[in-house]
Amino acid sequence: MASHDYDDARAVTSGPGYDEQLGYDPNFVPDSVKSFVVHLYRHIREKNVYEIHQMYETSFHTLSDRLFKDTPWPSVDAVAHYVDNDHVFCLLYKEMWFRHLYAGLTPTLRQRIDSWDNYCSLFQVVLHGVVNMQLPNQWLWDMVDEFVYQFQSFCQYRAKMKNKTEQEIALLRQFDQAWSVYGVLNFLQALVEKSNIIQILENEKEGLEQFTSTDGYDYNGGSNVLKVLGYFGMVGLLRVHCLLGDYHTGLKCLQPIDISQQGVYTLVIGSHITTIYHYGFANLMLRRYVEAIREFNKILLYIYKTKQYHQKSPQYEQILKKNEQMYALLAICLSLCPQSRLVDETVNSQLREKYGEKMIRMQRYDDEAFAIYDELFSYACPKFITPSAPSFEEPLVNYNQDAYRLQLKLFLYEAKQQQLLLGVRTYLKVYSTISLAKLASYMEVDEPTLRTILITYKHKTHAVDSDGKVISNADVDFFIDDDIVHVVESKHAKRYGDYFLRQVVKLEGVINELDAIKLD
Q: Which keywords belong to this entry (predicted)?
């Protein structure tokens, strides 16, 4: 997963001084790197996906940690002659080169622009050339993930205009198309369309084609690169639209992937988490709380059960961070829409541990409650971006927080409206029928105001799903007949299975401990 959270320091200018400063010679290639590129090149030519995956996931990170902790890898020109100057391999090498640079160092503006050019060349080859390769899903996911991450990083960097040098401003003016929002969206959309992935997924439902069943790989001598990039491109589009605050469009882009099922997106942990995090967040912002709760619950339970297997993964820290953010989002959803029956007991106990106290305070309608909503939203939301180019007129200002402040304002406005309805919900939970006059007197309002409040409750507890159907988020609903409010509370069968399973596991643990005790 590529979302490295470093703060974009003001980029230093590139040039020989920069390299000398780091004691870095871009043309020096250690023997271990020669061996790495030669073997990786050979495995790519032979379509040996298993070996490519091992080298990409393990060797690349091992060499990076050992030799290139504080410096970039050798330049592409220095390694090109070891791989027959192969154009496509050199583009792939540069993609990894820039990713390593972004992860551990601060890229200069020139390097940001060069990385954009490299992605343009790489995607052009995939879209319009003949690519006869099979690459691991992990690498193809990382390409899309890093592409969107670098776009987000560039927008944040460009929005901090205050301390830019004249040289940086001149470069920004000159390369105004680099990382433009249209360019990014066009590439992702082109990958989706050219790969024909939407049709492939449709055909697979009817048994006419295989994609998910082969994990996206092509076992008939073809290439998986365009198809899988197109597939992950849909997740990339969801993420970009969420960063822009366009949640409807984002969810529409993801629609061809059935997230109620396992799929290629669940094979790579980074892709699985990114998909559900953005899907859940978009549903939260569209007031589809029940859908958000369901999906957050599923992924948090999955991470809880499997995180120990990812401890050695380069993505482990990012998995833990997203896990914490999704607990915060789940706390928000359950405070606005108290449907804890949708949450598994394991997730619920973790949630109570992390946010139990805060969730109680969030039920109140006061400044402290809204301060907690603000805190959790700010911690867990995506890093929103303003995609438009800056004004180069003096005085230069920073506008990198503008998009975030707007989304926070919209969210808090909605949270305040939802909190106003908590009083109604409290009374509806207590009664099965109650007259309008009596309810109005309890709530200390007149009847016309009460009718307005009840209509608002109906409106705010319903949302429109992606198929255009009206769906309910309410655990307590009602109808009015002859000035009497009739309450309809949904009854749900209790699930005892989970409880017994947990007790069995506890008992087995106790038995094992007792067995281990040696009596004299």
A: Cytoplasm, DNA-binding, Initiation factor, Protein biosynthesis
Give bridge partners of residue 433 from the DSSP assignment: 486
Q: Give CA–CA dist 36/25, Å, rounded.
A: 18
In a domain, 426, yes or no: no
In a domain, 229, yes or no: yes
Contact residues for 283 (Cβ-Cβ < 8 A; gap 6+): 247, 251, 289, 291, 292, 295
Core vs surface per residue 290-301: b (16+ CB within 10 A) or e: bbbbbbbbbbbb
**Same domain as 389, residue 261:** yes
Q: What is the pLDDT of residues 189-214, one digit of tens each?
A: 999 999 999 999 999 888 888 888 88
Query: 313 and 242 in one domain?
Result: yes
**Is-contact 442 427, C-beta < 8 A?**
yes
Nearest alpha carbon to residue 132 among 227, 225, 223, 43: 223
467 and 354 assigned to the same domain: no
Same domain, 307 and 442: no
Helix or strand holding residue 170 (H, E): helix 166-174
* CA separation for the pair 46, 494 (Å, rounded): 55
> Does residue 460 sit in the same domain as residue 374?
no
458 — phi, psi (to 5°)? -60, -45
User: How is 442-510 classified by DSSP, letter by letter?
Assistant: HHTS-HHHHHHHHHHHHHHTEEE-TTS-EEE--SEEEEEETTEEEEEEPP-----HHHHHHHHHHHHHH
* C-alpha to C-alpha distance for 368 and 363, rounded to whole angstroms: 10
Structure tokens at 255: 């629609």
The whole-angstrom separation of Cα 329 and Cα 277 is: 9
Q: Is residue 72 part of a domain?
A: no
Specify the number of domains making up the chain. Answer: 2
Which one is predicted more confidently, 164 or 127?
Answer: 127
3-state secondary structure of 8: coil
Both 202 and 349 in a single domain?
yes
Q: How far apart are CA 511 and CA 501, in angstroms?
A: 15
Residues 351 and 451 in one domain: no
Residues 261, 184 within the same domain: yes
Distant-in-sequence, close-in-space partners of 139: CB < 8 Å, separation ≥ 6: 52, 53, 56
Q: If you count them, how many residues does the chain have?
A: 520
In a domain, 82, yes or no: no
Task: Please name which of 89, 90, 99, 94 lies closest in space to residue 148, comparing C-alpha atoms.
Answer: 99
Choice among 266-280, 332-346, 440-454 with the minimum mean pLDDT: 440-454
Average pLDDT for the chain:
87
**H-helix segments, 255-384:** 269-285, 289-306, 316-336, 345-361, 367-380
Task: Give the span between the Cα atoms of 168 and 159, in whole angstroms.
Answer: 13
Q: Compute CA 162 distance to the chain's CA centroid, rounded to the nearest angstrom.
A: 30
Taking the CA atoms of 405, 407, 408 and 414 in sequence, report the sign of the dihedral they define.
positive
- Of 88, 154, 168, the residue nearest 116 (C-alpha): 154
